[in-house]
Here is the input.
Amino acid sequence: MKKSVFDLQAIKELFTLHRQERADRVFKVALTGDALLNNPRLNKGMGFTYKEREEFDLVGRLPSAVNSLDEQCARAYDQLQSRTNNLAKNTFLLSLKGQNWVLYYSLLGRHLKEVLPIIYTPTEAEAIANYSHLFRKSEGLYLSYPFRERMEKDFLHYIKGKTFDLIVVSDSEAILGIGDQGVGGIGISTAKAVVYTLVGGIDPSRTLPIVLDVGTNNENLLGDKLYVGWSNKRIKGKDYDKFIDTFIQLVRKHLPHCLIHFEDFGVDNARRILETYRSKHAIFNDDIQGTGAVALSALMSAVGVTKTKLSDQRILVYGAGSAGVGIIWQLRDAMIRIDGVSKEEANKRFYMIDKDGLITKGFGSKIRHGQEDFVRPDEEWDDNDRHDGKIGLLQVVKKVHPTVLIGTSTHAGGFTEEIIKEMAKHTDRPIIFPLSNPTKLVEVDPSKANDWTAGKALLATGSPFPPAKMPNGKDYIIAECNNALIYPGIGFGAVLTESKTISDSMIIAGAQALASLSPALKDPDAALLPDFGDAPHVNFEVAVAVAEHAVEEGIAGVKWKKEEVRERVKERIWHPVYGTYHYDASGEK
Here is the structure.
C-alpha cells in the first residue's frame, strides 16, 4: 500500500497555517458602497473593519459593530438552527451563499457532516423536485434546446472576462434517485460545485454550474403551469447527441483547460458520452468513475487488512446499473495496473447480478453495454442452480464463495441473514459493501451484517450509519463510501495540472492516496475510510497524488517537476477567509 507523505494531523496543521497566510493577504478592490455589499464574492458583511468602512463608503450602510468571522458564523448557525425542517435550511443556506461566499463556506466547513445532507443528498433532491415552485433567481447557466442556435453566443456572454477551472453539468435525467427533473437539475450542478470548493479547495469564482435543458419526460413537470423549463418531451437519438457535442466543442474551444464534470445523466447516455469524449478532453462522470474510485479505495483498505491482493478476490456485485458497472470497471482496471494480471484474468474475478439474476451469456440481447466483459459462461451453472428460471444471489454465494459482496441494487434487505452467514462460512473477513442510497434502500443494515458475522465483516456503506458493536463491546465505525471523499481531489489535481484527459491511472492514484489514509491500516477493527469530517484534508492528498501522476504520465499541460507538485497544490487551495481590502480602481470587481 502506498504510504502518504503526511498523516491527517499533519495535513490539518498545514491547512491551519495556509488559512492564516491567506487571511493575512491584502486585496485590491474596485467596488464601493452597495455594489460591494451586493457582491457575494467580496462582501464581508459585518466583518468589514472600521478602516475599510471609511475607505469603501460603508459606514452608514452597516450597523456600528464589527464582527469577527467566528461571530458571524455563530449568528448564521443560530439562524440555520431556527429553521424547522431541512428544506427550509437548504433555502436559507442558498440565500446566504448569494450574499457572502466566505461566510457561507466557512459556516459549512465548521459543520461539515451536519450540513452536507442539507446542501446535497437527500435534501437537495427535495429542493430540485420543487425547483419551479421555489425559484427566486438563476443559479448558473441554462442551455436550452429551443435556443440551440445561439448556444455559443450565450456561452461566451456568460464567461466573458472570467476564468473557469470547472464546469459541473447535468441533463437532469437521473437526479439523486428521484429521476427526471428537467431544468431543476441546475440544483445538482450547483450543489456539486459547492462540494468541489468546500472539500476540494477550488475557487468558487472559477466554477460554473450548467443545466442542459433538453426537455423532460416527467409528466408532473409537463403538467405544471409553473414549470420554468422547456415544457417538452426529452429529445433523444441524433438530436440529443448533436446538442451534447455542440456543448462539449464549445468548452474545448473556449475553455480548453476546464474540467467537465458530468452529473446525473441517464445510464446509457452517461457511459456513451464518457467513452466518446474522455480521450479528447478532461471529463469526469461521478456516477461512474467517482463511485468506482471510492469503492476501490475502501476495497484496497480491506485487502490491506486481510493481507491479500485485489486480484485474489472473488467479487459479487448485486446491481448491474451504472454504479455497479462503474465499480467493476474501476476494480478491474486496478487489478490490471496494480497486480499486473491480464484483462481476461481480471474479468473472471467478477459476478454481476441484476433483477433477472446472475448475468450469463444466455441473457443475449438483455446484456447491456458495459456489461459484456463480465458475463459468465452458461456452462458454469446447472439446473440445480436455477430457481424460477434465474440464478439468484443466494445460489451464487453458495457456489462461488465470494470474498467481496457489493450492493448497488436499491433492493432493501437484499443481503439476507442466510446470504451473509453463507458468505461468512467460507472467508475469515467477509468484505461487505451495501452501497445503495438512501438508507431505506440499503441491501443490509451494517449492524446486522456485523452481528451475523460475529464482528468479522469489513464494512462500508453508501450512506452514514451509526457504529456497530463488536463482540468485545468495542464500537466498529462504519466507513461511508461517500464520493466526496475523492472526486473533488481528482478534479482539483486535473485542473491544477491542466491535464488533457483524466486517465484511469490518475483515478487509481487518487484511490490509492485515499486508501493510504485508512484508519484500518493502523487498527484492523477501525473504519476502512477516513471520517467524512476530514474530507478537505483527504482530498488534498488525493489532489497531490493525481497531479503527481499527471506530471509523471506526461498528460499535464503544465511544466512542473514532480517534487514541486505538493507546494503548487497548497498554493491554489481556496480558503474561506477575508483578508484585508484596500481601494484601487484597477482592483477586483
Observations:
- The first strand starts at residue 26 and ends at 29.
- The radius of gyration is 24 Å.
- The CA atoms of residues 489 and 543 lie 4 Å apart.
